[in-house]
Amino acid sequence: MMLRQVTLLLFFSAIIGCTSYPAEVDDRRPPARVSIKTHLVEAGESLYSIAWRYDLNVPKLAQINQLNAPYLISPGQRLKLEADSNMPLKSSSNEPKHKVSKGETLFYIASQYGMDVAIIAKLNNLKPPYIIKVGQLLTLTGKALQERKLVANNDVRNPLKLPVARMAVTKPSKLQPTYSKNWVWKWPIKGAIVESFNPKKLQKGLKIKSSTGVSVYAAAPGNIVYAGSGLRGYGRLIIIKHSDTLLSAYANNDSLLVKVGQSVTQTDVISRLGADNTLYFEIRKDGNPVDPSKYLD
């Protein structure tokens, strides 16, 4: 009798214990990834570096955000990465403006946009010592000048010493550069390919092994549209625009020898290779990575 009771007790305990376990999961697929739809601009970034980061076409990104050439953006600005489905893309005729933040000076703002201090001062009717207030909206372009004259970010000239008459002289515009035609791609450095193009593995370019400090050349003639270290994972980076559809990038450099707005040829040294002896090289067509080995001669 006692043995029977013990047996029944163990049987019912086993049944109750089984019901405490969770049901088996049939579907272990991860939830749908939330796509990134906006980007908060950080210091050192340009529209070209942001487009490069998200594999986007620069003109399209500019249209989405209603930006006109030369695509002026500022730290803290939030950019859309996708167009509104119910809104057609169109260019904006609004003049670019900058809202002054705490701690900013006119000289700092001018450096962020690559502009002469004197030009911004003239556009906003500011007189020395150029006092500005937090929250003030500064116009960055306008009909007051016959030409918007942009200067390289690293230009060490004192713009205050430039007479207004010289700043208004019409010169060939750097905002609509002409591009060479009938050229053939050349290898930026001599070395061994240690990583090939494989977009399935997120390898969007080539890694070329060479020697520390070796000279890096432009793979094709064009204009420098980015030179800096504001794009994570690329180190000191140079982006060259070769046509309305083609761009190339040169990453992991030790030193940069060119500036934004500068024109280069295939005989120009643009940088020196970094300590890891490896150049990361990409080519983009309409914002999409393509296999550089199919272009290089």
Blueprint (SSEs and pairs):
Layout: H1 2-18, E1 38-40, H2 47-53, H3 58-64, E2 78-80, E3 97-99, H4 106-113, H5 117-123, E4 137-139, H6 164-167, E5 192-195, E6 206-209, E7 215-217, E8 222-228, E9 236-241, E10 246-256, E11 263-264, E12 269-273, E13 278-285, E14 288-290
Antiparallel strand pairs: 1-2, 3-4, 5-6, 6-13, 7-12, 8-9, 8-11, 9-10, 10-12, 10-13, 13-14
Would you kindly provide a written description of the structure presented here, covering whatever features stand out?
- This protein has helices at residues 2-18, 47-53, 58-64, 106-113, 117-123, 164-167; strands at residues 38-40, 78-80, 97-99, 137-139, 192-195, 206-209, 215-217, 222-228, 236-241, 246-256, 263-264, 269-273, 278-285, 288-290.
- By secondary structure, the chain is α+β, with helices and mostly antiparallel strands.
- It has two domains: 38-167, LysM domain (Membrane-bound Lytic Murein Transglycosylase D, Chain A, Roll), CATH 3.10.350.10; 192-294, Glucose Permease (Domain IIA).
- The strands form three sheets. Strands 5, 6, 7, 8, 9, 10, 11, 12, 13 and 14 form a ten-stranded antiparallel sheet that branches. Strands 1-2 form a two-stranded antiparallel ribbon.
- β8 and β9 form a beta hairpin.
- The model is unreliable at 19-34, 87-93 and 143-175 (pLDDT under 50).
Brief digest:
The chain has helices spanning 2-18, 47-53, 58-64, 106-113, 117-123, 164-167; strands at residues 38-40, 78-80, 97-99, 137-139, 192-195, 206-209, 215-217, 222-228, 236-241, 246-256, 263-264, 269-273, 278-285, 288-290.
